[in-house]
Amino acid sequence: MPSTDPDPASALAPNVSSGWGTRLAKRTAGSDGFLTGILALANAHGVINFSGGFPAPELFPTETLGAIVDDLLSTDAAVALQYAPSDGIASTREAIADYLQSAEGQRPATGELMITSGGIDAVTLIAKSMLDPGDVVAVEEPTYLGAVSGFLSFEPVLHGVPMDEHGLDVDALAALIERGIVPKMLYTIPEYQNPSGLTLNAVRRTALVELCRAHRILIIEDVAYRELGFYDEKLPSLWSSAPDVVLQIGTFSKTFFPGVRLGWAAGPAEIVAQLVVAKQNSDQCSGALGQRLVEQFLRGGHLPAQLERERALYRGRGEAMAAALERHLPRPATWTVPRGGFFSWVRVPGVDTVDLAVAARAVDVAFVPGSPFFARSAQHDYLRLSFSRAQLPEIDEGIARLGRAIDHARRSAPASQETTA
Question: Which segments constitute the Aminotransferase class I/classII large domain (predicted)?
Answer without folding.
Answer: 76-401
